[in-house]
Amino acid sequence: MGEASRVALVTGGARGIGWATAEAFLAAGWRVVLCDIDGAEAGRRAEEHPQRILPLGLDVADRSAVEKTFTEVIRQWGRLDAVVNNAGIQRHAPLEELAPQDWLAVLDVNLHGTFHCLQAAGRIMLPQGAGAIVNLASVAATRGAPGRAPYAASKAAIVSLTKTAAVEWSARGVRVNAVAPGYVETDLVKSAIANGRISLDPILQRIPAGRLATPAEIAGAIVFLCSDGASYVTGHVLHVDGGFEADYGVPFSQGGRA
Description:
Layout: E1 7-10, H1 16-27, E2 31-36, H2 39-46, E3 53-57, H3 63-77, E4 82-85, H4 100-128, E5 131-136, H5 149-169, E6 174-181, H6 187-194, H7 200-205, H8 215-226, E7 237-240
Parallel strand pairs: 1-2, 1-4, 2-3, 4-5, 5-6, 6-7
């Protein structure tokens, strides 16, 4: 089966990493189901490729909406070959001040939304004996992330969910992996830097590559994991972070005595 005939569904697909991923799939010849809570923006994106993008408004935290969306994809395009669980939100607060509703909001979208879409995808892909799923984790999954407790917890849980799904489904032809981005130069991050909510210098000092990722660099890893080139890769968490996770964090000094 050629990749040009395949269909990928991307959640949170209208902006940032999601849209970059959609563009990468399109460049590889795939058709894309562009799902976003902002259905109007997804529709505007689809105008660029009217025959190859199916735009659908979707709140991934809504189980019923997820099920209807996946049913609609099969009704309209008759197949589903890859799913990218990209939709996610953040709520920032010190842990002792974090409002319970903010904790639940992040878990509902990031973790429960990923679960809903993962399960809906599996129920299509397992009977057909083929499919690839990529969940979006984060470097925050394995590091303490001050002020971002629900986000970090959700991403750590996504890593575990990814590995469990991979182990359960690999023998039946469905691969499940995760991509863990580091800091990415999305419009949201650029706005936060411009507004002084993020200080860029300390971040760059912690990244061995010395720069932020572009959304396209994250998208390239995602599309690779969905491709035939990754046919024996499952249960893997691919860090696309410029060396952030690998860095010991203590700089080497040649000063002093040997």
